[in-house]
Write a structure and sequence with these properties.
Layout: E1 2-5, H1 10-19, E2 24-26, H2 44-59, E3 63-72, E4 78-80, H3 93-103, E5 111-122, E6 125-137, E7 153-155, H4 167-173, H5 175-190
Parallel strand pairs: 1-2, 1-3
Antiparallel strand pairs: 3-4, 3-5, 5-6, 6-7
Helix pairs in contact: 4-5
Length: about 190
Amino acid sequence: MEICFATNNDNKLQEIRELLPDFHILSLKDIGHSGDLPEDQNTLEGNSHQKAEYVFKNYNVDCFSDDTGLEVFALDGEPGVYSARYAGVHHDSEANMRLLLDKMADIGDRSAQFRTVITLILDGKVKQFEGVVKGTILKSKAGEKGFGYDPIFQPKGFDSSFAEMSSEEKNKISHRGEAVKKLVQYLNHLSK
């Protein structure tokens, strides 16, 4: 099956292609789109749906889109839907991590979760899938792998940050991996 993953993030695209080896995953570049997709909703569900709907309506291609947020409980869910732009519009991961660590400097409860919402539009029908991984925010960065907030997020039950794990290890337990598993189960069920 050929399907477009509506993202400009090469790291996410690579991660998804590893998680969906039996599908031909098209990028936005593959369908002729350059530039950013609209993403101005105030929820992960809204942003995910908005991006997928834009691609489906403008390019007439089956697609899915995700939106992911890091939700810190002591900060009332911040950065949440604004995770990529937490420290400004430039999608600067280092600045985002610095801002979050500064805000949490005197906070004891460091519990957080990564949450991904995937919106699939297939033959005009919309379905959403959610993946969550709980964990804690570290006091300083650990590891060189991954992207985004991976160096400061330690998943529950593990002694290392996402950035200290191989992509295979991370994909087995990650929020995106969980949401993609639900997506794959749904797509496989449809193809039977």
